[in-house]
Amino acid sequence: MFFPGLSGTVTFGRVAAGGAVSLTPEQLDEIERGCEGLDGVAEFGTLREIVDAEQRYLAFLIGVQRHRIDAARIKSLPKSWRTAALRLAILLRIAVLLNRGRSAAAAPELGISVNESSISLRFDDDWLAANPLTVADLERERAYLHEVGYALDIGTD
After folding, report:
1. How far apart are CA 103 and CA 66, in angstroms?
2. Average pLDDT, integer, range 95-108
3. What is the pTM of this model?
Protein backbone atom coordinates (compact mmCIF):
# COMPACT_ATOMS: atom_id res chain seq x y z
CA MET A 1 0.00 0.00 0.00
CA PHE A 2 1.33 3.46 -0.89
CA PHE A 3 0.42 4.91 2.51
CA PRO A 4 0.81 2.23 5.18
CA GLY A 5 -1.90 2.43 7.80
CA LEU A 6 -4.32 4.32 5.56
CA SER A 7 -7.68 2.63 5.65
CA GLY A 8 -10.65 3.02 3.41
CA THR A 9 -10.80 5.00 0.24
CA VAL A 10 -9.47 8.52 -0.01
CA THR A 11 -11.40 10.53 -2.54
CA PHE A 12 -9.94 13.70 -3.92
CA GLY A 13 -11.50 17.04 -3.18
CA ARG A 14 -12.16 19.53 -5.92
CA VAL A 15 -10.18 19.88 -9.11
CA ALA A 16 -8.73 23.38 -9.23
CA ALA A 17 -8.08 25.48 -12.31
CA GLY A 18 -5.51 23.89 -14.57
CA GLY A 19 -6.36 20.39 -13.42
CA ALA A 20 -4.56 20.51 -10.06
CA VAL A 21 -6.19 18.32 -7.44
CA SER A 22 -6.61 19.63 -3.93
CA LEU A 23 -7.32 17.57 -0.86
CA THR A 24 -9.61 18.54 1.96
CA PRO A 25 -8.03 19.13 5.39
CA GLU A 26 -9.60 15.90 6.61
CA GLN A 27 -8.06 13.94 3.74
CA LEU A 28 -4.64 15.46 4.45
CA ASP A 29 -4.99 14.49 8.11
CA GLU A 30 -5.88 10.91 7.18
CA ILE A 31 -2.93 10.61 4.79
CA GLU A 32 -0.66 12.18 7.38
CA ARG A 33 -1.66 9.54 9.94
CA GLY A 34 -0.65 6.89 7.41
CA CYS A 35 2.73 8.57 6.83
CA GLU A 36 3.92 8.79 10.42
CA GLY A 37 7.64 8.21 10.61
CA LEU A 38 8.44 9.14 7.01
CA ASP A 39 11.46 11.42 6.61
CA GLY A 40 9.64 14.21 4.78
CA VAL A 41 6.98 14.44 7.46
CA ALA A 42 9.67 14.47 10.14
CA GLU A 43 11.51 17.35 8.46
CA PHE A 44 8.45 19.51 7.98
CA GLY A 45 6.31 18.35 10.87
CA THR A 46 3.13 17.52 8.96
CA LEU A 47 2.07 16.43 5.53
CA ARG A 48 0.12 19.67 5.24
CA GLU A 49 3.38 21.58 5.67
CA ILE A 50 4.96 19.51 2.89
CA VAL A 51 2.03 20.23 0.58
CA ASP A 52 2.16 23.94 1.47
CA ALA A 53 5.92 24.06 0.81
CA GLU A 54 5.50 22.30 -2.55
CA GLN A 55 2.75 24.74 -3.51
CA ARG A 56 5.05 27.65 -2.61
CA TYR A 57 7.82 26.02 -4.70
CA LEU A 58 5.56 25.75 -7.73
CA ALA A 59 4.24 29.29 -7.17
CA PHE A 60 7.84 30.49 -6.98
CA LEU A 61 8.79 28.83 -10.29
CA ILE A 62 5.75 30.30 -12.02
CA GLY A 63 5.97 33.69 -10.33
CA VAL A 64 9.58 34.40 -11.27
CA GLN A 65 9.27 33.71 -14.97
CA ARG A 66 8.76 37.34 -15.93
CA HIS A 67 10.68 40.44 -15.04
CA ARG A 68 12.77 40.66 -11.87
CA ILE A 69 13.21 37.76 -9.50
CA ASP A 70 11.59 38.79 -6.24
CA ALA A 71 13.85 37.86 -3.31
CA ALA A 72 10.79 37.67 -1.03
CA ARG A 73 9.48 34.78 -3.13
CA ILE A 74 12.73 32.88 -2.58
CA LYS A 75 12.50 33.44 1.17
CA SER A 76 9.01 31.91 1.21
CA LEU A 77 10.59 28.52 0.47
CA PRO A 78 12.18 26.17 3.00
CA LYS A 79 15.88 27.08 3.35
CA SER A 80 17.05 23.71 2.06
CA TRP A 81 15.13 24.27 -1.21
CA ARG A 82 16.12 27.87 -2.01
CA THR A 83 19.34 27.35 -3.96
CA ALA A 84 17.96 24.54 -6.11
CA ALA A 85 14.71 26.44 -6.72
CA LEU A 86 16.55 29.56 -7.83
CA ARG A 87 18.84 27.58 -10.13
CA LEU A 88 15.88 25.78 -11.69
CA ALA A 89 14.06 29.09 -12.15
CA ILE A 90 17.13 30.57 -13.87
CA LEU A 91 17.37 27.61 -16.25
CA LEU A 92 13.66 27.83 -17.04
CA ARG A 93 13.95 31.58 -17.70
CA ILE A 94 16.87 31.06 -20.09
CA ALA A 95 15.10 28.18 -21.84
CA VAL A 96 12.04 30.37 -22.42
CA LEU A 97 14.19 33.17 -23.86
CA LEU A 98 15.96 30.77 -26.21
CA ASN A 99 12.69 29.24 -27.35
CA ARG A 100 11.40 32.55 -28.68
CA GLY A 101 10.40 31.14 -32.08
CA ARG A 102 8.78 28.01 -30.57
CA SER A 103 10.36 26.07 -33.43
CA ALA A 104 12.96 23.32 -33.27
CA ALA A 105 14.57 24.77 -36.40
CA ALA A 106 15.13 28.11 -34.65
CA ALA A 107 16.84 26.60 -31.60
CA PRO A 108 20.50 27.61 -31.47
CA GLU A 109 23.42 25.31 -30.95
CA LEU A 110 24.52 26.26 -27.50
CA GLY A 111 27.54 25.77 -25.31
CA ILE A 112 26.81 26.11 -21.63
CA SER A 113 28.90 25.94 -18.51
CA VAL A 114 27.80 26.58 -14.95
CA ASN A 115 29.33 26.94 -11.54
CA GLU A 116 28.07 27.97 -8.11
CA SER A 117 26.94 31.45 -9.11
CA SER A 118 27.37 31.88 -12.85
CA ILE A 119 26.20 30.56 -16.19
CA SER A 120 28.16 30.97 -19.39
CA LEU A 121 26.33 30.66 -22.71
CA ARG A 122 28.24 30.31 -26.00
CA PHE A 123 26.53 30.82 -29.36
CA ASP A 124 27.52 30.79 -33.00
CA ASP A 125 28.41 34.32 -34.26
CA ASP A 126 25.88 34.09 -37.07
CA TRP A 127 23.06 33.06 -34.73
CA LEU A 128 23.72 35.99 -32.41
CA ALA A 129 23.75 38.42 -35.35
CA ALA A 130 20.50 36.97 -36.71
CA ASN A 131 18.65 37.15 -33.35
CA PRO A 132 19.08 40.65 -31.89
CA LEU A 133 15.82 40.52 -29.91
CA THR A 134 16.89 37.36 -28.11
CA VAL A 135 20.30 38.91 -27.44
CA ALA A 136 18.56 41.96 -25.95
CA ASP A 137 16.42 39.66 -23.77
CA LEU A 138 19.54 37.82 -22.59
CA GLU A 139 21.23 41.13 -21.76
CA ARG A 140 18.21 42.14 -19.67
CA GLU A 141 18.25 38.70 -18.04
CA ARG A 142 21.90 39.27 -17.14
CA ALA A 143 20.87 42.35 -15.12
CA TYR A 144 18.01 40.47 -13.41
CA LEU A 145 20.30 37.58 -12.43
CA HIS A 146 22.93 39.98 -11.10
CA GLU A 147 20.29 41.26 -8.65
CA VAL A 148 20.03 37.78 -7.10
CA GLY A 149 23.76 37.07 -7.07
CA TYR A 150 24.22 35.20 -10.34
CA ALA A 151 26.32 36.13 -13.34
CA LEU A 152 25.25 35.41 -16.92
CA ASP A 153 28.01 35.49 -19.51
CA ILE A 154 26.93 35.60 -23.16
CA GLY A 155 29.51 35.11 -25.88
CA THR A 156 30.56 33.30 -29.01
CA ASP A 157 32.43 30.06 -29.60
Report:
1. 21
2. 73
3. 0.65
